[in-house]
Amino acid sequence: MAILFLGALMGSAITLTIQWYGRRKVKAALAQEGLTPTRQTELLVNENEAMRGQMLRLEDRLSVMERIATDSSLNLGREIERLR
């Protein structure tokens, strides 16, 4: 139970960190002089795609952690042996 809570807490912290980082990058991109609105949009779209990819990878990792925390040890042992 504690592992599941810790995983959810870590996932939330990572999500908030990614959002903060993204907002910081957006502000920096908008603050640059000489960028046209089209270029700004292009930079934001690229940054958004990168963040989505990172978020998907983190969600996959979190789901694995949740499965490890909730699966029975017998099933987990079989899966580990199968992966070897």
Question: If you had to describe this structure to a student in words, what would you say it looks like?
Answer:
The chain is mostly helical and 84 residues long. It has one domain (2-83). 89% of the residues lie in helices and 0% in strands. The chain is built from 3 helices and no strands. It has helices at residues 2-31, 37-70, 73-83. The two termini are 28 Å apart.
| Uncertain ranges | none
The main β sheet shows up as: none
Radius of gyration: 19 Å
The figure for the number of domains is 1
Percent helix among the residues? over 70%
SS content category: mainly alpha
| Secondary-structure element pattern, one letter each | HHH
CA-to-CA gap between the ends?
28 Å
Spatial shape? elongated
Q: Number of helix segments?
A: 3
According to DSSP, the number of beta strands is 0
Instruction: Give average pLDDT, whole number.
Output: 84
Strand fraction? under 5%
Task: Summarize this structure briefly.
The protein is built from three helices and no strands. It is mainly alpha-helical.
Please outline the helices and strands.
Blueprint: H1 2-31, H2 37-70, H3 73-83
Which descriptors apply to this entry?
3 helices; single chain; 89% helix; mainly alpha; 84 residues
